[in-house]
Write a structure and sequence with these properties.
Elements: H1 2-52, E1 59-67, E2 73-83, E3 86-94, E4 100-113, E5 116-128, E6 137-143, E7 150-159, E8 162-166, E9 172-177
């Protein structure tokens, strides 16, 4: 009888251990499942946040000023347009007497990733007198096929309705979003 009780106790104890181990396995698997779900959710949320923070440059922007890397500011009139993957800019730089000293019309395609704006130049019409921070620019008229288009890696900074494009030269152009675009 005593032997049967010990055997019974051993079976109950073994069964309890098995249940406890089984519960631990289930708890471990549940924790692992939650951990994997949290990792997937974090990755998905991060990607969605990146997409929400993607700058939207589409539309028309009026040029406010052209700032040279030495801090010199030039009055500028014109605008830049972004549509889909295409861009076009037309601007004139005005001297202190109100005279147009330089002008440029350029366009092509662009890519935007974060604030990295890469402009591909397919068209260029430009000319200009020397001004502080800008050398004289002889008349230039170019139409360049996509295969040979030059690229200009810039940085785009957006603050409300203000867009600043920072060029590799260190110069910047500041734009204001048109309210009717």
């Amino acid at each position: 009888m005593k032997g049967e009780k010990n055997l019974m106790r051993k079976k109950v104890f073994a069964s309890s251990r098995a249940r406890l181990f089984s519960l631990r396995d289930k708890s471990f698997l549940r924790s692992l499942t939650y951990l994997i779900a949290m990792i997937v959710a974090t990755i998905t949320w991060t990607e969605a946040l990146d997409q929400m923070q993607q700058l939207d440059l589409r539309g028309a922007w009026d040029v406010n000023e052209y700032v040279m890397k030495d801090g010199t500011k030039h009055a500028t009139k014109g605008h830049i347009l972004f549509a889909g993957t295409d861009w076009t800019v037309l601007f004139f730089i005005i001297n202190a007497r109100g005279e147009v000293n330089r002008g440029s019309a350029e366009g092509g395609t662009y890519t935007l990733k974060g604030n990295d704006l890469v402009l591909r130049h397919h068209y260029n019409l430009s000319v200009g007198k020397a001004m502080q921070g800008l050398p004289e620019s002889p008349l230039r008229m170019d139409v360049i096929d996509a295969e040979h288009a030059s690229t200009e890696p810039t940085k785009a900074e957006l603050a409300g309705d203000r867009l600043t494009i920072c060029f590799p030269s260190g110069n910047k152009m500041v734009f204001k979003r048109r309210t009717n675009s």
